[in-house]
Design goal:
The chain has 132 residues and is mostly beta strands. Helix content is 13%, strand content 47%.
Length: 132
């Protein structure tokens, strides 16, 4: 997340937000934030939301997600809001919404649903790298 200048200003049980400024290093050919970056922050926001509900000695791993890109990621920044839909012992279902910030308003640009696998007794290899 440091690579794309993202921050994680909200972390609550089952819920997180990632904020991303718009800058030229993450743009695609039309000047919008690239869809791969939109997917990256959606996956991370929902994954971190899942992480808030697992034991301290466990970690999480995305096993699948489906994302709809509904509008161009066009604005001065994006917010990815991740939340847990259902937390099971082995699998956690999450969702994320990504909104573009423009002219003082939010415009929905992506929706994602994700399945996370709980990796019990297997902590993180290193810190997540999210600035805050």
């Amino acid at each position: 997340m440091d690579l794309i200048r993202a921050t994680l200003p909200l972390v609550e049980p089952g819920r997180t937000e990632i904020h991303l400024p718009h800058w030229d290093g993450i743009e695609q050919q039309h000047g919008f934030i690239h869809g791969g970056v939109v997917g990256m922050i959606a996956d991370s926001a929902a994954g971190y939301a899942a992480m808030t509900l697992v034991p301290a000695d466990a970690s999480v791993l995305t096993v699948e997600y489906k994302m709809n890109l509904m509008a161009p990621a066009d604005g001065h920044g994006l917010i990815a809001r991740g939340e847990v839909v259902r937390a099971g012992r082995t699998l956690i279902v999450t969702r994320a919404e990504v909104v573009a910030l423009r002219d003082g308003a939010e415009q929905a640009c992506a929706l994602m649903q994700q399945t996370i696998m709980v990796m019990r007794h297997r902590g993180e290899k290193r810190e997540s790298g999210v600035g805050g």
